[in-house]
Design a protein that fits this description.
CATH topology: Four Helix Bundle (Hemerythrin (Met), subunit A)
CATH architecture: Up-down Bundle
Distance between the termini: 36 Å
Order of helices and strands: HHHEHHEEH
Helix content: 55-70%
Number of helices: 6
């Protein structure tokens, strides 16, 4: 079992994500969340995929791309810091990622599949880590972070965007 991290294991910026994950079993949470978010995304009506609720905001399809990109980056952080606790990883400028994304030819269903596959890979990687490595500390975006904090943030980020989609897009 990987315990929830202490507040000194991550930057306070991530507290809202951390607050969305109320579990003592992060691996089970990630597995359950994978299934529930895929069901949630698959239930979004096609006419909402391009919907933007305000000028300068992303479409539903772009929010999904952002979730995928972040899932990849945060999973990489878990892996890197677990294997090399001296790791200093760069930040992720979400606007740059979005600017350099072109999902026009991709179907929404293909993006849902991509998320599902990336999350499955992250779960497999996390399940195969020695639990003692979950307390390793590294740096990401210039701030100290533990492996286990990054796991919880990974889950909290998805919960955050699910809530945003429900409240502002659907």
């Amino acid at each position: 079992m990987i315990e929830k991290p202490e507040q000194d294991e991550y930057n306070e910026f991530y507290q809202p994500y951390m607050d969305k994950v109320r579990t003592k079993d992060i691996i089970d949470f990630l597995k359950t969340q994978r299934k529930s978010i895929v069901r949630f995304l698959n239930a979004i009506p096609e006419e909402r995929y391009s919907y933007i609720y305000a000028e300068g905001k992303w479409s539903v399809k772009q929010v999904l791309r952002h979730i995928i990109d972040t899932e990849i980056v945060f999973g990489y952080r878990v892996h890197s810091i677990a294997k090399n606790k001296a790791a200093e990883l760069p930040g992720m400028d979400q606007e740059d990622y979005m600017t350099n994304s072109n999902d026009t030819p991709n179907t929404f269903e293909a993006l849902v599949d991509e998320f599902n596959n990336v999350r499955k890979a992250n779960i497999s990687m996390i399940e195969n880590l020695d639990p003692d490595l979950s307390k390793n500390m590294g740096k990401a975006s210039g701030f100290p972070i533990s492996v286990r904090a990054q796991m919880y943030i990974l889950a909290g980020h998805v919960e955050h965007h699910k809530q945003v989609l429900k409240e502002k897009y659907l």
